C-alpha cells in the first residue's frame, strides 16, 4: 500500500487512544538499570580488586546483560528480536575477546552492537515501516490487543509515518556516533574508566533519545487533536 492517500478521499479514521496507553512507570526500567548498568561495573571492580586479569573481569561483567535478556525471556515466555540481537553480539564479542586475548576488543565489543543497531535503523527506512515504529509499539501497546490495533491504525496518518521515519533516522545516526565514541574511549582511556563511563553513556544517550522521541510524538498528537478540534468546530 502506498503512503500517499487517494486524491479527494476522506481523511483516515483511527480509533481513540485506549485508556492509559501513554503511561510509563520508572519501575519498568529498574531491573535493566541494575543488570545493564550497575552490575557490570560492580563485577569488574570486585574482580580486579581481588587480582583477576582485566580481560576476565571485562568478560565477566559483560555476562550481566546476557542474564538480563534471559530473565526477560523466562518472564515473558517469548523471544524479542532485539534481545536476540543483543545476546548474539555479546556472545560474539566475548568469544573474540577471549580468542584474541585483547583488552581492547573486550572494551569495544558493545560498539559492534551499537553500530549495527544504528545501521539497522537507517536500513529500515527503506522498508514500509521503520524500526522505531515497532520499538515504540512494544513500549506503548505491549501485548494488549486494543492498544496494538490502535497503534497499527495510526500508520494511516501521513504525519505519524513521517515522524517515525524521522526519529528512526535520528536514532540510527546517534548510535553510529556512540559506537565511534566507544572506540575512541577504548583507545585513549584506562580500562577501569571505560568500564565506568560506558554504561552511563549508553543509558544517558538512551534516556535522551527516549525523552526526545516521546516529546516529539506527543507534540504530533497534540497538533493532530488541535486540527481535529478545529475541523469539528468549522463543521
Helix content: over 70%
Number of separate helices: 8
Radius of gyration over C-alpha positions, nearest whole angstrom: 21 Å
Order of helices and strands: HHHHHHHH
Tertiary shape = elongated
Largest sheet: none
Decide which structural class fits the backbone.
mainly alpha
How many individual β-strands?
0
What proportion strand? under 5%
- What do the pLDDT scores average to? 76
Q: What is the domain total for the residues?
A: 1
Structure description:
- This protein has 235 residues and is an all-alpha fold.
- It has one domain (26-234).
- Helices cover 77% and strands 0% of the residues.
- The protein has helices at residues 30-49, 54-76, 81-100, 103-124, 131-141, 145-153, 158-188, 191-234.
- α7 runs antiparallel to α8.
- The protein is elongated, with a radius of gyration of 21 Å.
- Mean pLDDT is 76; it is low at 4-9.
Kindly list the characteristics that best describe this protein.
mainly alpha, 235 residues, 8 helices, single chain
Fold topology:
Blueprint: H1 30-49, H2 54-76, H3 81-100, H4 103-124, H5 131-141, H6 145-153, H7 158-188, H8 191-234
Provide a short characterization of the protein structure.
The protein is mainly alpha-helical. The chain is about 75% helix and about 0% strand.
Amino acid at each position: 500500500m502506498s503512503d500517499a492517500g487517494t486524491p479527494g478521499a476522506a481523511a483516515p479514521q483511527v480509533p481513540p487512544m485506549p485508556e492509559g496507553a501513554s503511561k510509563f512507570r520508572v519501575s519498568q526500567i529498574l531491573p535493566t538499570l541494575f543488570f545493564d548498568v550497575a552490575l557490570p561495573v560492580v563485577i569488574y571492580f570486585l574482580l580486579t580488586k581481588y587480582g583477576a586479569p582485566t580481560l576476565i573481569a571485562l568478560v565477566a561483567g559483560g555476562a550481566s546483560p546476557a542474564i538480563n535478556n534471559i530473565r526477560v525471556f523466562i518472564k515473558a515466555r517469548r523471544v524479542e528480536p532485539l534481545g536476540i540481537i543483543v545476546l548474539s553480539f555479546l556472545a560474539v564479542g566475548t568469544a573474540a575477546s577471549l580468542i584474541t586475548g585483547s583488552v581492547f576488543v573486550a572494551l569495544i565489543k558493545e560498539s559492534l552492537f551499537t553500530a549495527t543497531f544504528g545501521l539497522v535503523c537507517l536500513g529500515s527506512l527503506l522498508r514500509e515501516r521503520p524500526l522505531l515504529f515497532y520499538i515504540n509499539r512494544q513500549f506503548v501497546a505491549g501485548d494488549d490487543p486494543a492498544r496494538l490495533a490502535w497503534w497499527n491504525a495510526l500508520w494511516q496518518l501521513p504525519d505519524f509515518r513521517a515522524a517515525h521515519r524521522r526519529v528512526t533516522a535520528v536514532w540510527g545516526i546517534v548510535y553510529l556516533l556512540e559506537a565511534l565514541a566507544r572506540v575512541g574511549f577504548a583507545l585513549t582511556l584506562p580500562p577501569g574508566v571505560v568500564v565506568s563511563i560506558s554504561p552511563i553513556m549508553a543509558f544517558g544517550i538512551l534516556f535522551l533519545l527516549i525523552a526526545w522521541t516521546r516529546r516529539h510524538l506527543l507534540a504530533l498528537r497534540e497538533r493532530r487533536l488541535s486540527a481535529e478540534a478545529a475541523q469539528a468546530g468549522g463543521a
